[in-house]
Structure prediction request, 392 residues.
Amino acid sequence: MLQKLIDHSPDLMRLRDEGFEVEVKGGYLLIHHIPYVNHSKEIKLGILVSELTLYNDKQTAKPNTHVINFMGEYPCNNDGSIIAQIKHASPNQLLFDGITINHSFSNKPANGYDDYYHKVSTYSGIISAPAKSLDKTVTEKTFKVISDESPDSVFNYWDTNSSRANIHMISSKFFGQKIAIIGLGGTGAYILDFVAKTPVQEIHLYDGDEFLLHNAFRSPGAASIEELNMRKSKPEYYKAIYSKMHKNVITHPYYINEANIEELGNLSYVFLAIDKDSVKRSIIEYLIKMNIPFFDVGLGVNIVDNSLIGTVRVTTGTSDKHDHLFNRISSGNDMDNEYATNIQIADLNALNALFAVIKWKKMCGFYQDLIKEHNSSYSINDSHLANDDFAA
Prediction:
């Protein structure tokens, strides 16, 4: 992937051809072997670390910011005084394994930087000039080729969104997770949309239904007439979409039952987006036994006075906290389940999915979780959000 990006990006190609040590890692551009002078007037080597803005997986775009990061001590003039004109911040922030930015610098041209060659060569020149004045043999242009040794990503292209926000290390909390979404109606499909944008290892899709016309009006994206006429299973329909982004979308075009429930045994988290209470209870009991956390979603909408009212619910269950589950989740007659009505609206499906995904991310440590609620319900007509069933 690195070689393709360099070959199709004139700015990166120019950096490489002039001898800079170029590496792309975790959605960042790294330039190794940058000489600088430290406070003790010693010549050291640092690494420039820049956000990386791309048009696609093969070509860079104009840099998103004029700020650049640096790994090393603060660069100084040849007399040991700091280079004050580029001073910005000293965050000492861990971006991802092995990459900690110690400082950031700001040097902004009137119209920003034209490309990454312009940005890197400018900062390199400022930082390296004092070292070169002390030792004429010092150079940042070693012509050393950095091999692309990064582990295989679960994405088909770099996640430059995380690198632009400097949250790659926080996003790494999802690494290795195996997620299942059981039920791909409106809410389950939106859960997939959000989960597919995280670096989880695998996403398992369970549903025995076909993707039909009514599904198109309560799911993310827009299906074509040709796609609807194909009558694919929901897992296969959604895999065709989301495998464009995430490599490991795994389909199970059937329902979970007693015969195949053990397929869930090695999962990290499960999202339950199904209405049939009798099936749901057996799945919940199995997940509790196997110590697999899960999130059950529910959407109940009714017509009152020619308007819609209703509630959106997310209930979390773990092996440590599950005494509340069947007070919140119907487990008897499906017809008595207030969350099993046929009225579904895309925006409410998306909201229901968002509540569930945010709770999952809180449990993973991506978001801070102060109250550890295990049940949340949002009432549409009065905009009331109620949190209950807190973990000890």
